[in-house]
Amino acid sequence: MAKAARTSSRRKPIRRIAINTGGGDAPGLNAVIRAVVLSALNEGWEVVGIRDGYNGIFRPEDYPDGGLVPLNRSRVRGITHLGGTIIGTTNRGNPLKYPTKMPDGSMKEVDRTDDLVRGLQDQQIDAVVAIGGDGSLTIANALAMKGVRIVGVPKTIDNDLSKTVVTFGFDTAVSFATECLDRLHSTAEAHRRVMVVEVMGRYAGWIALNSGVAGTADAILIPEIPFDLRKVATKVLRRAGAGRNFAIVVVAEGAKPKGGRRSVLEKQLGAAERLGGMGEKVALALGQMTGKETRHVVLGHLLRGGTPTAFDRLLSLRFGAAAVRALASGRRGVMVALDPPTVRYVPLAQATKRMKVVPLDCDTVETARELGVCLGD
User: Fold this and answer.
1) 249 Cα distance to chain centroid
2) Are residues 250 and 313 in the same domain?
């Protein structure tokens, strides 16, 4: 029998909650959704999913069956192992910088969080579980400041959210990237080639560093260490001189050369800039500098898709259940965070205050150096 909805001392009882997934997808999203739904139903609450970020609130007319998805036990049955998100997501249409057409026909980024708050109220949504990365949780914090009862769940394969040891989706991305590096070793050695592998991660090098070390890469280029490509070329040539006529170079999409810039593919209103292309640039330059046959591979969105690892599934389920516990106990404006062995709560304002980048003195960086991996510096 469902438990009666608990009452916050300062707010009306929760009867209906919404789940939002924003930004890039990550393995484990559906597991979080399932945990939130089942836990919320045990509290006696109704649960709906907002389609495609907050588009279901802003543009419900885009959806023939409405901008909200009713979520019940049957709807979330059998989704724990599935990649993606059953309610959709988007990295465009940031409510804090919403692309809006002005009277003169120009486009401008406008803060529409007040409209979003009204939209949630109109849909009789008492609380929100926002699942996302730094951008999505910055929006969640803004909504909390405007009185919305909201709890955040840290999601990003990039692992760049502070105040949590790890985000779900990261382990799956690193595991898949490592498997790809394992496969590339054999073809690189067979053809005596230099294989340059570009991975996601935006402005943080966690995926590149962890998969590169695990996959025994010869060089790893991360955003935190501007690289001198001559150092990488020297590493490749030294290997060739020792009879190792191939090399594996991992490049984070946000890596940049000393004195240079990141490689940006696109920047649109209401969306974060899209990084990419650095792997191709590194491969071309390395080929010219070493005379070696060079190829580049972009793993890209392959890192986002597919079945989450057991670690990410368990973490996602724990996060989802913890988010409902937070709401049931009267918390708001917080993010659930892994602080092994427990899940705790931290203020959203703290969680989004700074990006978690790779510390240059961290053990994994030191390990890479001790193993002889070139970091480009």
Assistant:
1) 23
2) no
Contacts of 134 (CB under 8 A, 6+ apart): 156, 160, 161, 352, 355
pLDDT at 35: 98
Residue 21 and residue 158 share a domain: yes
pLDDT tens across 334-364, in order?
999 999 999 999 999 999 888 999 999 999 9
Same domain, 365 and 231: yes
> Same structural domain for residues 126 and 199?
no
Sorted by sequence, the CB contacts under 8 Å of residue 321 that are 6+ apart come out as 35, 36, 39
How much is the average pLDDT of 72-90?
Answer: 96
Number of domains in the chain: 2
* 245-270 pLDDT, tens digit each: 999 999 999 999 999 998 888 776 66
Decide if 158 is catalytic: yes
Residue 208: give the domain boundaries: 173-303+359-370
CATH of the domain at 55: 3.40.50.450
CB-CB neighbours of 88 under 10 Å: 18
Task: Name the catalytic one among 25, 52, 126, 158.
Answer: 158
Opening angle at CA 163, ends 154 and 180, nearest 5: 55
Asked if 218 and 366 sit in the same domain, the reply is yes
For residue 185, the domain's CATH number is 3.40.50.460
Lowest mean pLDDT among 156-165, 179-188, 257-266: 257-266
Beta strands in the chain (DSSP E): 16-21, 46-50, 68-70, 98-101, 107-110, 127-132, 150-154, 194-199, 219-221, 247-252, 264-266, 274-275, 294-298, 334-339, 342-347
Is residue 5 assigned to a domain? no
d(CA 240, CA 253): 27
Is 140 in contact with 327 (CB distance < 8 Å)? no
CA 334 to chain centre: 18
